[in-house]
Amino acid sequence: MSFDNKVAIVTGAGSGFGAATARLFAARGAAVVASDINLDGAEQTAAAIEQSGGSAIAVKTDVRRSEDMQALIAAACDRFGGIDVVVNNAGLGHRAAPMHELSEADYDLVFDTNTKSIFWSVKYAVPKLIERGGGAIVNVASIGAKRPRPLGAAYNASKGAVATMTRAVAAELARHKIRVNAVCPLASETGFFKTTGIEKLSDKARERMISEVPLRRLTEPRDVANAIVFLASEQAEFLTGILLDVDGGKGI
After folding, report:
1. Nearest Cα to 91, choosing from 178, 16, 5?
2. Under 8 Å between Cβ of 3 and 29
3. Of 73, 70, 86, which Cα lies nearest the Cα of 13?
4. What is the band of 199 on the pLDDT scale with cuts at 50, 70, 90?
5. What is the structure's pLDDT at 187?
6. Which domains are assigned to the chain?
7. Residue 102, C-beta contacts closer than 8 angstroms, at least 6 positions apart
C-alpha cells in the first residue's frame, strides 16, 4: 500500500487519530501536511515524520474559518505541488448533557468544527484534486452518526451530517475520479474523552462500556489510521460513499 509521490493533508494532526494517520501516510511514502489549531501539536507530528525520514510540514488551521482552509490548501500546493488525499479529521464533542441544556455557542462550535469544516475543505480542495486527475477524501464521522446515544445530541447530529455529506459528495465527485468515504469510530481515549466527560466515568462504568464491545476494548488511534489509509489507497479504488465502522463489532 504505497503513497509514493502522493501528498496527503490531515486536519487535527496534532494528536490522537490525526497524528496516527499522518504518521502512517508518511510511513507509506506520502508527503504530509499536518494541520491543527494547535500548532505545537502539528509541529511535533511533522517533526516526528521528518525524523523518521519522511517529508512533512505543519500548518496552523482553524477549520471553521474559510480563510484558514484556503491557506491550508495553498500551503500544501506551494510546498508539494498539489494534493492527492484530504483527511477531514479535526473535530470535537461537547459536555455530556441533554440538548435542551446546551447553549447556542455549544451547538455552533460543534457544528462549525465538525461539519462546516468539511464544506470549506471540499470547496477549496476539490479543484486541486481535479487538477491531479482525481484523488481521495476521507472524513471522520462516528458510530454516533448511526447509533446515537443520550447526552450527545448535537455531536451525534453533526456526525450524522458528516455521514450524509460524505455520501452526497461521493455521488457528485465520482465523475472526477475523486472517491469520498468516511470512518465511523467508537469512542477512544483521546482528547474527546476530556471534552465529553467520559474520562470521569467510574472504573465500573468504563468496564461496562468495554464489555459491550465484542473485541473488548475501545478504539485506538492506530485502528482509525489503518482504516483511513486503506480507504485512501488504490486497494479501495472501487469504494466510494462508504461509512466504515471502526468499532470492534459494537454495531453487531
Report:
1. 16
2. yes
3. 86
4. low
5. 84
6. 7-242 (3.40.50.720)
7. 94, 153, 154
CB-based contact 188:224 (threshold 8 Å): yes
Q: What is the pLDDT of residue 132?
A: 97
Residue 113 dihedral angles phi and psi, to the nearest 5°: -75, -45
The confidence band for 197, taking pLDDT boundaries of 50, 70 and 90, is low
pLDDT in the model for residue 94: 86
pLDDT surpassing 80 at residue 193: no
| pLDDT given for residue 227 in this prediction | 99
Q: Is residue 107 annotated as a catalytic residue, yes or no?
A: no
Q: The pTM is what? A: 0.94
How far apart, in whole angstroms, are the C-alpha atoms of residue 58 and residue 72?
A: 10
Say if residue 127's pLDDT is above 70: yes
pLDDT of residue 149: 85
Rounded CA-CA distance 179/235 in Å is 12
Question: What are the angstrom distances between the C-alpha of 162 and each of 71, 90, 113, 117?
Answer: 22, 12, 11, 10
Considering the candidates 3, 25, 80, 155, report the single residue annotated as catalytic.
155
